[in-house]
């Protein structure tokens, strides 16, 4: 997935126009980002933040350690090894401050879901995971910047997006155009289909999701399926 796109394919979802940003190297030893160019810098408030999007395979051991530490702190220690595994294997967006410290992260991974309605088919979707902002940098727009990048990946690489939102995060996602999935939620378990009614008020979708009259059945995984 870490390939250069030239020219970029059109996005499935409209993205806000952004003014050109100056080029600025990322952290020492960091590879180029997914679009095959040096990581750009964006001015956020009084700080210059470096925002990069790249595949798990391009992250250094130091970067992976920093991401895990950020997530452990952001979730107050309630971030399991299974949760960590769920956020790997896809595209990551990292925000570093002017001193090179990681202050925000999110990832989008590929998942397969089947739809039991009229479409009766399997979809390749982009599922958002591991979104976190360092405590002292919250409410400064960094989470929105991470979501901008992840939504761009979803729009260009997947048929639609999905995520599981906390009560606190639901308003943010709604404001960005995510919609609550109004149908049933299931998982394709080792022993058959498992229903998850507890997830039906917290699963959001973005883009051309199928008719909610049919259930969405997600691929199985250890830990939380959603």
Automatic annotation (TrEMBL):
<feature type="region of interest" description="Disordered">
    <location>
        <begin position="1"/>
        <end position="34"/>
    </location>
</feature>
<protein>
    <submittedName>
        <fullName>Aminoglycoside N-acetyltransferase AAC(2')-Ie</fullName>
    </submittedName>
</protein>
<feature type="domain" description="N-acetyltransferase">
    <location>
        <begin position="54"/>
        <end position="200"/>
    </location>
</feature>
<feature type="compositionally biased region" description="Pro residues">
    <location>
        <begin position="7"/>
        <end position="25"/>
    </location>
</feature>
<dbReference type="InterPro" id="IPR016181">
    <property type="entry name" value="Acyl_CoA_acyltransferase"/>
</dbReference>
<dbReference type="InterPro" id="IPR000182">
    <property type="entry name" value="GNAT_dom"/>
</dbReference>
<dbReference type="GO" id="GO:0016747">
    <property type="term" value="F:acyltransferase activity, transferring groups other than amino-acyl groups"/>
</dbReference>
<dbReference type="Pfam" id="PF13527">
    <property type="entry name" value="Acetyltransf_9"/>
</dbReference>
